[in-house]
Amino acid sequence: MDDRHVLEFLQLNLEDVNSALSTVVEGDTPAQLYEPARYILASSGKRFRAQLVLAASSIFEGSREVALKAAVAVEVFHLFTLVHDDIMDRSDSRRGIATIHAKWDEPTAILTGDFLLGRASEILLAYPDDRLRRVLDRFSNTVRILCEGQIRDMSFEQRDDVSLDEYLEMIDQKTSALLQTALVFGALTGPADSSHYTQLDLIGHHLGRAFQIQDDLLDLVADSSEWGKPIGGDLTSGKRSFLLLKALELERISGDRYFHEVQKSGGLDSSYLKEARLKMDDLGVTESARSSVILHSEAALSGINNLPAGTGKDALIALTEKMQRRLY
Predict the structure, then answer these.
(1) Considering the domain boundaries, does residue 53 fall inside one?
(2) Could you give the maximum distance between any two Cα atoms of the chain, in Å?
(3) Is residue 213 part of a domain?
């Protein structure tokens, strides 16, 4: 792998996507809608999903012009989900800046999200006619799957019997589905065949699981200055994350009740976060989370290794390895 060439490819992708995102909002009026839309589009981000589109397109020698449009559409759609997630989670900050509903209000945030969803589908019209129906069908199915995952995630907060397997299935809907679609959208800019699409879906499945479990882990162990959210937010809110559900599972074996009481009381007082982290370490929860991230990352890499050689493949490998190592 030519590391310098891969880094240049990823940097060019990031610059092109950020530049294109700045043109997503074409109007100025009404300012009450377009100002918050521009605000969220200008927010910082690694553009991981957009990078997946462009890497997959490069693998199959697809149209860079169409792939860039698809990458922007995927990123715009992802931002839509974040805007609405922040409302449902009552989150006042993300990536170190105020969320739209906190900076403006909830109705404005809802409409901004709706606008972004509409723009994402509009941008996808850049695909040629012979691919467009498949693209839009995939997009609408992804919207449905993510909504199903979100409602399942919300329902978990009302239950005390959520299993780890149920949580992983929810991840498949809420996180993996968009990563799978990003890879397929990239492949659809070139001459990929059905076996390639199957392989990309499998890669996206494992990437999504690794990404979300890593996210859950970092919620407790990340560098707070870089994380952009309060450390331990999942535990203090009682959210059914991989860490809490794994802790409950291991407590059934050990006979401890610490995290069962955390779940029963609806969350943990932030003053006990250090104690909770030590208990998770003792139970083997944090190690289990790290092992799961490695397991799914390695499964994704195994699938990537079966793809055609080139810069795109090397970029996918680099993105996966970086995701596995991320600290925030």
Answers:
(1) yes
(2) 61
(3) yes
Residue 328 lies in a domain: no
In 3-state terms, what secondary structure has residue 54? Answer: helix
Q: Domain with 53 in it: what CATH number?
A: 1.10.600.10
Q: Identity (one letter) of the amino acid at 8?
A: E
Smallest CA-to-CA distance from 102 within 89, 114, 117 is with 89
Alpha helices, H only, 22-128: 31-41, 48-59, 64-89, 100-103, 106-123
Number of structural domains the chain divides into: 1
Residue with tokens 């009740």: 257
Give the structural domain span for 237.
3-320
Place of tokens 């535990």: 235
Q: How far, in Å, CA of 286 to CA of 243, rounded? A: 7
The upper half-sphere exposure of residue 256, i.e. CA atoms within 13 Å in the direction of its Cβ, equals 15
- Please tell me whether the peptide bond between 30 and the residue prior to it is cis, using omega within 30 degrees of 0: yes
Q: Where are the beta strands (DSSP E) in 89-207?
A: 93-94, 97-98
182-236 per-position pLDDT tens digit: 999 999 999 999 999 999 999 999 999 999 999 999 999 987 666 667 789 999 9
Answer whether 34's CB lies under 8 Å from 25's CB. yes
Measured between alpha carbons, how far is 102 from 95 in angstroms, rounded to an integer? 14
Reported as half-sphere exposure (CB side, CA atoms, 13 A), residue 178 has a value of 31
d(CA 140, CA 137): 5
In a domain, 325, yes or no: no
Structure confidence by residue, pLDDT tens digits, 243-283: 999 999 999 999 999 999 999 999 999 999 999 999 999 99
